[in-house]
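Technical note accompanying the year-one report. For the benefit of new consortium partners, we illustrate the data format agreed upon in the data management plan: each record pairs a sequence with a structure-token string. No post-processing was applied to the example shown here.
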Amino acid sequence: MLRTLIIDDEKHIREMLSGIVNEYCSNIRLLGTAKNIAEAEKRIKEWKPDLILLDINLSDGSGFDLLARIEEPAPMVIFITAYNEYAIKAFKFSAVDYIMKPINVEELIEAFKRCEMQKEQDNLSSKLKVLLKNMDGNSSEAKKIVLKTQESIHVVKVTEIVRCLADHNYTEFFLENGKKLIVSHTLKEYELLLNDYDFFRPHQSHLINMNFVSRFDKVDGGALVMSDGSRVPVSKRKRDELLQLFDQL
């Protein structure tokens, strides 16, 4: 059972979330609520919750300000946000859990289930660093993505990903340094995240970084040869789109 604290400066949101927890979430023990950073910091120190539901915009600062003041080990976090699509992409890149305002009951319950399955305290500080960098539109650093395998949490520069391979509900990442990481999300999810960063899906099972393409062999249906020596098939449906990309290089 996850001991949970709700932190939001809007009274009706606190009441709504409390009602959802009490009615639908038998795996959640609600400790109470807080309306600002000062109150939340005091209650986190006193109650030591396993999980906090945290509004990003609070009356006396941001949810990030609060997290910077929390002593380790930090609780798990589900962010509550009204941010736009760009910011949501940053959340997904950083592998942090979030729910959108207005609150959807089913989405909140699913977020709780993910936390219940997690249980262990994964590396929140690493994920938050990635999140804050990715939300900073003025940062000159390469975009980073958090990839969670069964054994570890990896922070990877998008520019270091050579290609991705679908394996049912898993995705295999092949990196420039030769490492391979297996993550329990579908290739489609990563296609949506990476399509703005020179990634292309030439085949149902493959997603590639165009910056690591060595050549395109047109024979036998067509295949891309990558910088790591791998051959990636190109479907007939994607061939023309690929050739247009080459024309733009």
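Partners are asked to follow this layout when depositing records. The mean pLDDT is 88.
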